[in-house]
Amino acid sequence: MDIIFSILIISFLIFIHELGHFLVARKSGMAVEEFGFGMPPKIFGKKYGDTVYSINLIPFGGFVRIKGESAAGNSYDADAFLGRPAWQRLFVVLAGVFMNFLLGFSIFWGLFTVGTDVALDQSNRALAKNLSIGVLEVAKDSPAFTAGLKPGDRIYKLSSDDQIFTDFNEGKFIELTKQFAGQEISLSLIDKEDVLVVPRIDPPQGEGSLGIAIAQIGTVKYPITTAFSRALDHSFSASVFMFEAAGNVLKNAFFKGDIQNLSGPIGIVNMTASSLDAGFSQTLGFMALISLNLAVFNLLPLPALDGGRIVFVLWEMISKKPVPQKYETWVHSIGMFLLLGLLLLVTIGDLKRLF
User: Looking only at Cα atoms, what is the longest distance across the chain?
Assistant: First the structure.
C-alpha cells in the first residue's frame, strides 16, 4: 500500500504541474487539444468543448497538448501556442513551475501554522515542544546500523543501568555517547521499540561513537502571519539550494559519468514510501520538498524541460526574432533523448540499490 500511495502522491504533484500549463494556456486564449491524467496509452477519453480529457494507463502525472506547439499546419492560428505573443507563451511555460512552488509553499505554510516537527536552531528553539534527537544519517556497519537505527528515528531518552537522561540537545547527546563508550546503552525511540547499542571507544574519523548524523527536533507552531513569511523564506531557501545541487549533480552525471547522487522514479517512490512510515506531517513535508524539487528541476535551462523552452522564448523577446522552429525542435529532441538515456541509467542504479 505504501508503494501505491507513493505513486499517487508523485502523480498528483506532476498533475498539478500540468494543470498550471492547462489553466494559463486556456486563460491566454490557446486551444488545449488534450489534458491527460497519467501517460499513454489511453484508457478512456471524453471531449468537452475543444478539449479531450483522458485517463491513461501509466499512473505518473499527466500531460497537456496545446494546439500548435510545433511549427506544423495551423501552428500560427490565433488560438495556437505559436500564434500567441511571446510573453503569453512565457507565462504558459512558467505556470507549471509556479504551481509546484505554490503547492510546496502552501503545504509548509499549513504545517508551520498547525505545528510541525523541524530541526531546531537559535531562531526557533524557544518555540519548540516535544524535543528529541532526530537521526539524519546512519553510517554503514556502525553500531547504530547494526542495532537497526534508521534515518527518521527520533530518540527521546538514553538509559544506562540506573541512569536515565531525557533533557539533551545534540552536544549533550554526543557527550553522553562518548561517556558510555564501550558500555551497552538503551535508546528510547518515538513510536518504536527501544534499541540497545554499544558506542565505540575509538570510532572512525568523522563518524562518532554511534555512527549517526543528528539534529535536535522539536514541534514548532507559528502564528499564521509569521508562518506565512517562514514558509515563504523556507521555500525560497530550499529551492535555491536544490537548484545549485541539481546543477552540480547533472554536471557530474553528464561530464563525469557519476550518477550515484541521482534518483529516478523508483528511488523517489521508495523515499516517499519511507516517509509514510514517519507519520502524516512528515509525509506532507516530504511531499512539499518533492513539489519544490519538481519546480526547480523543470526550471533548469536544459532542452526538453520548461527551462529550455523559457530560454528560447526569452531569446525571442530580447532579439525580437524567434529561433526557427525546426532548430528548436531538434534541440529539444536531442535533449529529450539524453534525458531519457540518463533516466534509464538512474533507474538501473535505483534497482541495484534496492536489490
Answer: 82
C-alpha cell at 91: 507565462
Q: Is there a single domain that holds both residue 103 and residue 19?
A: yes
pLDDT score recorded for residue 38: 83
Q: Which three cell numbers stand for residue 23?
A: 489553466
Same domain, 110 and 251: yes
pTM for the model:
0.77
- Choose one of 187, 220, 253: the last residue of a domain: 220
Asked whether residue 283 falls in the same domain as residue 139, the answer is no
User: What is the mean pLDDT of the segment spanning 301-321?
Assistant: 91
Residues 131 and 98 both lie in one domain: no
- Which of these is catalytic: 18, 34, 69, 328? 18
The question of whether 18 is a catalytic residue gets the answer yes
173: nearest Cα among 133, 119, 118, 213: 133
Does 288 fall in a domain? yes
* 55-90 confidence digits (pLDDT tens): 988 776 688 999 987 655 557 788 899 889 999 999
Q: Count of CB atoms within 10 A of residue 130's CB?
A: 13
Q: Helix, strand, or coil here: 307?
A: helix
Identify the domain containing residue 130 by its residue range: 125-220
